[in-house]
Recover the amino acids of this structure.
């Protein structure tokens, strides 16, 4: 009997064995507090905060490349043409499941509110690690504050009024507490500007050592972003835009102000000025190519040096490029933009797809599937530095005629002598030749140099039955001089040379400053001209006053505000062509109706003879663009969860 | 770091020691040969017996069993004088003094009691017979057995032989064989062909939680894989616990029902050897047909041209013409990839053998089985290795029962299971945009449909230049963007090895005398499971033929430096787990005064499973042990075999939850009434032989609410190897910190409230039996992702919460009719039917008040949702006059037109409605007969499935779509029936062709919805047993040959593939098997 009692007790005891038996998780399983236990892991978290930066080298998911057809196009490739970006360009943006949804981070967008929460977590916990020098800690805080501001800024660019996520909402928050509002644009701008100011105080003026710190944030970057933010706020999209007059939320707040306020331009000009000054004080200046510092380029003539100055502004090593302010650390690579989902991994490689076909054998590398759009061909100035349709000396009416290149043309470095090509390829400014590859033109690559870079071969042969035919142009500007393709040998493939894609450079700030000064002042003056002329000078052109005076059929255009605004805008579009900036500018200038609806044009693809080939063919009509296309819609489902959100105006 | 306590072995050892002490005592007690049988007259001593009247004589004798073995421990009592008696000694002998006129009563557990006049018993061997009826009437229940008559839980007991199908997978026999089980088989791939089965359907909608039953083999928790490998000949009993009462003892783990299997034990009998050998031929029930190569090229051209007039055609007319003429098959190949990769049939073998027997002290059941299964893929003759699936399974089982004393039994079970699988190398496959790893065989099926038929040959004949080449000249496209599926298949193989070993010790002691009815049992078990995989292969050399000037061809090597002629090796994963389990039972079964039937049980269990399991997103959690603790009990009371009552409980602990949520109490109650035993029913006993009503109600839990290794929801989870960001000109990267999960202290198990009402009916002397059960279940605390958190909060992962409630109900019927028309002619007809359906009762959903059809509440679990497809668009005008379809991408004439449910002029996710039946069938039934005449026997079994729907995955069959491994082929169904500009059939099977998966068309809609119901002749068997007069001559007690088959025919509205595979139809087809077997018993 005793035994039985023992067993009975034992059985119950089994169930009651101290709870420790079920406590199997060691105390040190990775938990959130481990992310801040020391400097080393906190640095990892710092990098996490950086990791959400939208990838400018992502062709289909970054919002500026293929979402319109006025700069670059991917419609020669049916797979690329189904990408999220191309769908937007097609007018297929929708509220059901928006493309490039940066609000929730689906359909190609990065989840920027997750990014902001990561920044908030960092800011709330960075006091914990004990082994950080206070100086470093405050620098990190400055960086993360900047990132938090930048993510808000990026959303602002896309959505206009946005939800400000200043605090890390606790998980215990009631659903009602999470029903937040989109704030008016002016409120958002002030919030972001303040945050940037806080960051600037904590950041180093410039990066002490780019070898180990390139990609991190310094004062110049933060000030430049602030300059861009305030310019955006002052621009027509958000400054006196009456299209959005009716857009109010359920508190009755108007989300985009419909009254023009010139002081916004003054504020922007001030910020740009500070950014430029800080940049200058820290050694930033416009880039100039040094042929003696580049292997195999010692023999280049001045024309080629000018082209290299323009191209290498984008692709030069950071150590040798004082112009670039902020670079992306992302690498253009296969598989971006969910290209695999489209059926072709390599479509996501931006640089590869802009790389021109030079030899038949290049097709093994699948290069050159994306092109520059027709609009860009006409955009660049004549060699006199004025628009080709304004140039008194430019044969604009006959620009589609063909002409044989002769030694007397002085185009030996641009067009193969003895070949016939379109008139529009002659007498253009150096930036035209540096930015676009065209039939019978050269593409300067290290692998194709001769005589130490004195000449380049071969020229592009892109008519029907030749090396490659698409009747379009390639965006040569983004192709590094050092890349190479097959070189006519099937054993060689496209060899990329990755560089640090610039996000902000000094010329951008100069042009912004011209633009802001022009808006602030009653009449454009020499100060307005000064900054734009610096950029023109670098591009091998004379100043605006002189150029228009001598060559334009509207010589006093640089002296009136509207004319000057036009000049600055075109200058900006030319100077920053193929740098993923155009879409932002077109948006803030409210010019999308003009540019995003352009039809798609190319040369006749089915012809071999020059006369027949050089006939512009409209192969696709443009889409209709309305005011609603300036800002992205929010997914309907998000409005269901948060009834205080209002849909972007025009998308309801 | 605080070091955690290891699993405490000492507890088990302590229990074992307590037992040993007890047994030692009891053994001594039973050495006394004469003792008082009943406790009532315990004061009467042997001395006193001798003093009684002089008439008494001494009777001595021997007790043996049917086979002549002497039986120790048999109680010999005197009928006329209660309480007086003796028991037989170790040699089965006894002697007793009594009057010659008195009657001696011989009794032993498990044997029919025998009476003999004392005068006749002297010096005579009394033969005891095994009580067959008593064994049959017992049903295996949780931690023990219960008399069938007094059973009020809902338990299906399946005759093991019913589960015998000619396949090496036991689970494939489940569908339709047992009432209350919803089962279906989606794949026929050897080794990966487990059927999915759910007890009374699925009543939980957690995303990753466990929904299939707990499986216990000899009381030990096992996986579906272990169950599927079990050899039917080894099974003693197979029970399915369905209601709360049956499963309550398993507490937090029994909510999805329990399958209890026990294996055979030895019998005290002469040596008996049973051998079964089978050989079978297996072939695909259906293989989806592909269009011929010429049609493929023509329609690819059409697909490109019909969507975009500007794009160049993929095939020139000269290529089509040359291919059609077939004059130059090397330069203009025309390949049916199936022919190179898939065989028409394959052969498999199985042998198993068991030996059983034993004496009074030791009884044994020894079994060994070998099965050889092969896949239906073609092998390459040029390889030394076999790239087809080839599985060798060996099982060894030894169950040894040792009677330490007549009332103390030890059982040692040892079981080993060793599988070696070789097969094609697994790889990644992208389906519906999601890439996942699939087995090599499934990949072979997919890739055979994913390579253009006219681009290159699988391999080229050796030309002069390469006559001496020591490798196969595989073909590939010039750009090398396609996979040559034959090269992929034959260039390597993967080996997966699994060893599972299990040792189990059981010790049971039945108390006697005043404690009769009381027993104690201990079980201790160790299981070790180890798997590894690795692959070997070479890199193929690829060639492409180029035309030479003289019109012949020349092979261009595509990777002259890339291929290898020797094998390389890649290591794979290895997982090792080891489980220890201990259990102590204390039970009391007694019938008092023939009226009060008491059955009580108390069980304590402890379980620890450790070892390394590869878990992708949290490796650490995969290594932490999985532990359970429980105390459970049962108290059943029966009054006069008429009124029954039962109480069960489980009190369980699990390691998965926060401290305050680790233990749960799960009680259940039940009552039964056997009407047919009432005196007022006496008159109808001949017709209504059995009528029982029963009802149970209780709680059961499910602790595996998330993925098996996704535990510890009370802890946040952080990956320190998340996405980082590089700094510096050399892009020096460091990883970042990613929050995988946020902590939630309050997460705990699912609770199922189950009620059951049953009716058992036996008619005409139980010739016809009908069992019916009606059941209802409310499943609470279902883990669900929160839906009210806006994305602006910025959470990395959406937290889960125990918020969902689902309600299930259904009924099941089991019918059996058996009749013996003559000793030579017998028949059995049986059938069962299960209907189970569950609905969302509560879950978090966004506000859909403007589109109430979007709410899930009130709709069925696993309900399909999609758009309502009306037809195809007729022309562009039709498109312009219809609501705008915002489903992504462009669409036009010949694309699917959907219904605008809310009438807002836009087709978007608000227009998605519930359509069709759920994906899991609501009805499963089976019906069969077997009959025998003399030596012949014939049986057939039909199985059906109804009320389920599935989607054809349109994006997975969209033809001509380029992907990373090739280009999707053209199914014949699409070639034969699609919208085209010349044949604008707006109700065709396939919309306008395209070389992409048109987003507008591939969304889930009624256009792709199909009825999943089917009826199939699941199995049939015809056998012949040789008459005794032949077999006796060769010392064989039984010799039977039989032919059988499974999945012989099916009837369904759906014709593209085997309907049982549902939307998985392009995987490895379900197999049709013809089998020849022989069974010999010595």
């Amino acid at each position: 009997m005793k035994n039985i009692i023992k067993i009975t007790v034992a059985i119950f005891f089994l169930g009651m064995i101290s709870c420790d038996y079920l406590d199997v998780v060691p105390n040190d399983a990775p938990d959130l507090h481990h992310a801040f236990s020391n400097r080393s892991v906190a640095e990892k978290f710092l990098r996490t905060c950086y990791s959400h930066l939208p990838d400018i080298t992502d062709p289909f998911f970054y919002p500026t490349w293929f979402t319109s057809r006025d700069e670059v196009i991917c419609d020669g490739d049916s797979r690329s043409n189904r990408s999220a970006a191309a769908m937007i360009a097609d007018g297929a943006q929708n509220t059901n499941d928006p493309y490039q949804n940066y609000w929730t981070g689906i359909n190609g967008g990065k989840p920027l509110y997750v990014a902001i929460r990561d920044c908030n977590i960092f800011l709330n916990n960075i006091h914990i690690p004990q082994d950080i020098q206070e100086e470093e800690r405050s620098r990190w805080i400055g960086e993360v504050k900047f990132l938090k501001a930048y993510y808000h800024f990026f959303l602002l660019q896309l959505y206009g009024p946005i939800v400000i996520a200043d605090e890390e909402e606790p998980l215990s928050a009631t659903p009602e507490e999470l029903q937040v509002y989109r704030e008016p644009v002016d409120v958002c701008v002030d919030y972001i500007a303040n945050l940037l100011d806080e960051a600037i105080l904590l950041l180093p003026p410039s990066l002490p050592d780019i070898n180990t710190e390139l990609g991190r944030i310094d004062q110049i970057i933060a000030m430049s972003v602030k300059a861009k933010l305030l310019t955006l706020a002052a621009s027509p999209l958000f400054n006196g835009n009456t299209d959005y007059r009716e857009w109010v939320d359920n508190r009755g707040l108007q989300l985009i102000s419909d009254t023009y306020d010139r002081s916004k331009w003054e504020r922007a000009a001030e910020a740009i000025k500070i950014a430029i000054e800080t940049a200058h004080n820290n050694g930033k200046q416009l880039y100039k190519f040094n042929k003696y510092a580049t292997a195999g380029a010692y023999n280049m003539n001045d024309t080629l040096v000018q082209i290299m100055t323009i191209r290498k502004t984008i692709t030069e090593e950071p150590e040798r490029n004082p112009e670039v302010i902020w670079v992306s650390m992302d690498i253009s690579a296969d598989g971006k933009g969910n290209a695999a989902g489209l059926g072709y991994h390599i479509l996501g490689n931006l640089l590869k797809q802009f790389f021109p076909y030079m030899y038949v054998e290049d097709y093994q590398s699948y290069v050159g599937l994306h092109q520059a759009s027709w609009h860009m061909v006409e955009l660049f100035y004549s060699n006199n530095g004025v628009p080709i349709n304004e140039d008194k000396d430019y044969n604009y009416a006959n620009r589609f005629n063909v002409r044989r290149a002769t030694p007397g043309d002085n185009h030996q470095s641009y067009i193969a002598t003895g070949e016939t090509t379109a008139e529009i390829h002659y007498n253009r400014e150096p930036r035209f030749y540096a930015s676009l590859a065209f039939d019978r033109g050269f593409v300067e690559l290290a692998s194709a140099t001769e005589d130490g870079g004195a000449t380049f071969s071969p020229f592009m042969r892109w008519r029907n039955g030749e090396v490659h035919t698409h009747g379009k142009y390639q965006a040569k500007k983004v192709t590094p001089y050092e890349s190479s393709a097959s070189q006519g040998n099937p054993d060689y493939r496209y060899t990329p040379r990755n560089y640090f894609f610039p996000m902000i450079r000094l010329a951008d700030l100069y042009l912004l400053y011209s633009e802001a000064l022009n808006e602030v002042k009653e009449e454009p003056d020499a100060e307005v001209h000064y900054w734009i002329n610096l950029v023109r000078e670098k591009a091998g052109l004379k100043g605006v006053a002189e150029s228009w005076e001598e060559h334009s059929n509207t010589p006093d255009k640089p002296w009136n505000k509207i004319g000057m605004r036009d000049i600055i805008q075109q200058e900006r579009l030319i100077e920053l062509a193929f740098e993923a900036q155009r879409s932002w500018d077109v948006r803030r200038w409210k010019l999308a109706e003009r540019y995003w609806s352009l039809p798609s044009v190319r040369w006749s693809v089915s012809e071999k003879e020059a006369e027949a080939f050089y006939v512009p063919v409209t192969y696709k009509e443009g889409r209709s663009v309305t005011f609603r296309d300036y800002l992205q819609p929010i997914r309907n489902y998000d409005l269901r969860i948060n009834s205080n959100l209002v849909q972007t105006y025009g998308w309801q | 770091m605080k070091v955690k306590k290891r699993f405490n072995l000492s507890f088990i050892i302590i229990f074992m020691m307590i037992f040993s002490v007890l047994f030692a005592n009891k053994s001594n007690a039973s050495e006394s040969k004469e003792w008082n049988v009943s406790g009532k007259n315990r004061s009467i001593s042997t001395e006193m017996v001798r003093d009684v009247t002089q008439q008494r004589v001494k009777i001595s004798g021997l007790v043996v069993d049917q086979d002549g073995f002497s039986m120790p421990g048999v109680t010999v009592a005197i009928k006329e004088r209660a309480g007086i008696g003796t028991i037989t000694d170790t040699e089965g002998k006894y002697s007793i003094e009594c009057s010659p006129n008195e009657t001696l009563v011989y009794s032993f557990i498990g044997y029919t009691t025998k009476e003999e006049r004392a005068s006749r018993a002297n010096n005579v061997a009394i033969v005891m017979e095994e009580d067959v009826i008593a064994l049959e009437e017992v049903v295996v229940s949780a931690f023990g057995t219960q008399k069938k008559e007094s059973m009020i839980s809902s338990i299906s007991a399946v005759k093991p032989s019913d589960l015998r199908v000619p396949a090496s997978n036991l689970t494939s026999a489940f569908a339709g064989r047992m009432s209350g089980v919803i089962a279906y088989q989606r794949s026929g791939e050897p080794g990966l062909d487990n059927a999915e089965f759910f007890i009374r359907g699925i009543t939980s909608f957690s995303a990753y939680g466990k929904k299939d039953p707990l499986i216990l083999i000899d009381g030990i928790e096992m996986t579906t894989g272990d169950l599927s490998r079990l050899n039917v000949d080894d099974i003693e009993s197979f029970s399915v616990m369905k209601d709360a009462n049956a499963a309550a003892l398993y507490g937090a783990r029994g909510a999805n029902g329990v399958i209890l299997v026990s294996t055979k034990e030895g019998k005290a009998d002469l040596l008996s050897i049973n051998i079964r050998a089978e050989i079978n031929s297996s072939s695909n029930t259906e293989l989806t047909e592909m269009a011929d190569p010429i049609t493929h090229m023509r329609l690819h051209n059409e697909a490109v041209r019909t969507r975009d007039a500007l794009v160049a055609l993929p095939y020139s007319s000269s290529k089509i013409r040359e291919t059609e003429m077939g004059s130059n098959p090397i330069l203009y190949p025309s390949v049916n990839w199936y022919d190179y990769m898939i065989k028409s049939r394959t052969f498999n073998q199985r042998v198993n053998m068991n030996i059983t027997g034993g004496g009074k002290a030791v009884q044994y059941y020894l079994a060994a089985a070998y099965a050889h299964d092969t896949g239906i893929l073609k092998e390459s003759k040029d390889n030394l290795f076999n790239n087809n699936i080839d599985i060798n399974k060996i099982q060894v089982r030894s169950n040894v029962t040792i009677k330490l004393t007549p009332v103390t039994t030890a059982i040692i079970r040892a079981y080993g299971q060793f599988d070696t699988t070789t097969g094609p190398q697994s790889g990644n496959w992208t389906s519906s945009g999601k890439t996942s790893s699939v087995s090599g065989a499934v990949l072979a099926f997919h890739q055979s449909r994913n390579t253009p038929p006219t681009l290159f040959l699988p391999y080229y004949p050796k030309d002069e230049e390469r006559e001496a080449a020591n490798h196969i000249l595989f073909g590939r496209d010039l750009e090398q963007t396609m996979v040559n599926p034959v090269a992929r298949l034959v260039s390597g193989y993967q080996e997966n090895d699994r060893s599972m070993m299990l040792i189990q010790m059981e010790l049971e002691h039945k108390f006697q005398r005043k404690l009769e009815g009381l027993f104690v049992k201990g079980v201790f078990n160790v299981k070790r499971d180890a798997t590894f995989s690795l692959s070997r292969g070479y890199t193929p050399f690829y060639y492409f033929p180029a035309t030479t000037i003289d019109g012949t061809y020349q092979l261009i090597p595509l990777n002259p430096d890339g291929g290898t002629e020797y094998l390389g090796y890649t290591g794979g994963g290895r997982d090792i787990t080891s489980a220890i389990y201990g259990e102590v039972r204390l039970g009391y079964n007694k019938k008092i005064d023939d009226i009060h039937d008491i059955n009580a049980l108390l069980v304590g269990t402890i379980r620890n499973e450790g070892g390394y399991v590869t878990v992708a997103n949290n490796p650490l959690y995969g290594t932490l042990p999985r532990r359970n603790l429980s105390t459970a009990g049962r108290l059943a009371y029966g009054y006069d075999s008429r009124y029954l009552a039962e109480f069960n409980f489980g009190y369980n602990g699990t390691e998965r939850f926060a401290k305050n949520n680790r233990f749960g109490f799960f009680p259940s109650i039940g009552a039964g009434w056997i009407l047919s035993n009432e005196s007022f029913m006496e008159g109808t006993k001949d017709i209504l032989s059995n009528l029982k009503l029963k009802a149970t109600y209780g709680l059961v839990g499910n602790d595996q609410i998330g993925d098996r290794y996704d535990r510890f929801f009370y802890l946040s989870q952080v990956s320190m190897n998340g996405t980082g960001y590089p700094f510096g000109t050399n892009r020096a990267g460091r990883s970042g910190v990613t929050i995988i999960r946020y902590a939630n202290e309050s997460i705990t198990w699912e609770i199922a409230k189950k009620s059951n009402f049953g009716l058992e009916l036996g008619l005409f002397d139980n010739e016809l039996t009908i069992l019916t059960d009606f059941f209802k279940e409310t499943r609470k605390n279902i883990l669900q992702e929160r839906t009210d958190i806006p994305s602006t909060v910025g959470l990395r992962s959406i937290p889960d919460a125990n918020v969902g409630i689902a309600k299930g109900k259904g009924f099941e019927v089991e019918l059996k009719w058996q009749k013996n028309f003559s000793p030579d002619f017998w028949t059995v007809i049986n059938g069962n039917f299960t209907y189970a359906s569950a609905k969302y009762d509560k879950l978090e959903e966004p506000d859909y008040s403007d589109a109430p059809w979007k709410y899930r509440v009130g709709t069925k679990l696993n309900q399909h949702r999609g758009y309502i497809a009306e037809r195809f668009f007729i022309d562009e005008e039709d498109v312009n006059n219809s609501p705008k379809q915002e489903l992504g991408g462009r669409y036009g004439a010949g694309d699917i037109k959907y219904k605008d449910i809310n009438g807002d002029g836009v087709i978007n996710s608000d227009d998605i409605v519930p359509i069709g039946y759920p994906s899991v069938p609501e009805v499963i039934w089976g019906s069969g007969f077997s009959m025998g005449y003399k030596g012949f026997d014939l049986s057939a079994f039909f199985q059906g499935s109804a009320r389920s729907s599935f989607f054809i995955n349109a994006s997975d069959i969209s033809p001509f779509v380029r992907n990373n491994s090739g280009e999707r082929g053209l199914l014949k169904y699409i070639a034969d029936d699609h919208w085209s500009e010349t044949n604008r059939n707006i109700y065709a099977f396939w919309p306008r062709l395209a070389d992409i998966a048109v987003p507008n068309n591939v969304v889930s809609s009624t256009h792709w919805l199909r009825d999943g119901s089917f009826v199939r002749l699941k199995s049939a068997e015809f056998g012949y047993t040789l008459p005794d007069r032949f077999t006796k001559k060769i010392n064989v007690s039984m010799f039977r040959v039989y032919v059988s088959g499974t999945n012989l025919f099916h009837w369904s509205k759906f014709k593209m593939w085997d309907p049982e595979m549902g939307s998985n139809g392009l995987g490895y087809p379900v197999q049709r098997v013809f089998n020849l077997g022989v069974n010999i018993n010595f």
